[in-house]
Amino acid sequence: MKLTQNREAVEKLGIDFLGYIFYADSKRYIGENPEAGLFAAQKPKVGVFVNENAFEILGLAKNLGFEYVQLHGTENPKTCQLLKTQGLKVIKAFCVDENFKFSDTKPFEKVADFFLFDTKTNLPGGSGEKFNWKILNNYKGHTPFFLSGGITLDDAKNIKEIEHTKLTGVDLNSGFEDKPGVKNIEKLKQFIAELKNAEETA
Questions:
Q1: Which residues contact 63 (CB under 8 A, 6 or more apart)?
Q2: How many CA atoms lie within 13 A of 127 on its CB side?
Q3: Distance (Å, whole) CA 44 – CA 91
Q4: In whole angstroms, what is the distance from residue 90 CA to residue 151 CA?
Q5: Which is nearest to 15 in space by CA: 41, 38, 35?
Q6: Which of 9, 120, 137, 188 sits 20 to 30 Å CA-CA off 3?
Q7: Using CA atoms, how far apart are residues 71 and 199, in angstroms rounded to an integer?
Q8: Nearest-angstrom CA–CA distance, 197 and 45
Q9: Burial of 34 (0-12, 13-18, 19+ CB in 10 A)
């Protein structure tokens, strides 16, 4: 989210979380001087970070009212534990490709509330590309997860066909944007409707 008006429109669609990118190298970075009303949301807010200092994250969370943090770097379990003990919900992201070992998630089982499985790229941030979702069958952990990476309008039916019991939601980015950080409301509305329709006809 970059713009207050866009955030307000997205929030009316029945989404569960609003994400704010605090990684300066990302095209979706909120910027040095974000709009004053950007964070005045009623839905849970997620601050997204890459290898940021834990105390900097805690300060921003307190000042801006984040309930969740999403960690996309090489953060270790101790960092997750510190944030969690300070009352934050932690989403730990993992970059997945054909060689990914889900055993790498085990040290984070007790210190992350959710995992997020995204497509592996050379740099942090959205690539707009999918990984092979069949790989998710190899995940045997207990922590619920979000699916991310290249999801578009055409994927609602395929997502509903994923039978993994720990899949708890999807992260919608580049496939639903007019430009980085600005969501296309009509695409989001259509996707949500199609996803609900897929649930009803399943």
A1: none
A2: 15
A3: 13
A4: 22
A5: 41
A6: 120
A7: 30
A8: 27
A9: middle
Q: Which residues, in sequence order, are bridge partners of residue 136?
A: none
147 contacts 171 by C-beta, under 8 angstroms: yes
Q: Using only the alpha carbons of the chain, give its radius of gyration.
A: 16
Domain boundaries, the chain: 4-201
Enter the DSSP assignment of 44.
Answer: P
Element (H, E) at 158: helix 156-160
pLDDT at 197 over 80: no
**Cβ atoms 181, 2 nearer than 8 A:** yes
- Tokens representing residue 3 in the block: 């713009």
Closest CA to 114 of 84, 155, 86, 135: 84
- pLDDT per position as a tens digit, 124-143: 655 568 999 999 999 999 99
CATH fold of 4-201 reads TIM Barrel (3.20.20)
Per-residue pLDDT, averaged over 36-57, amounts to 96
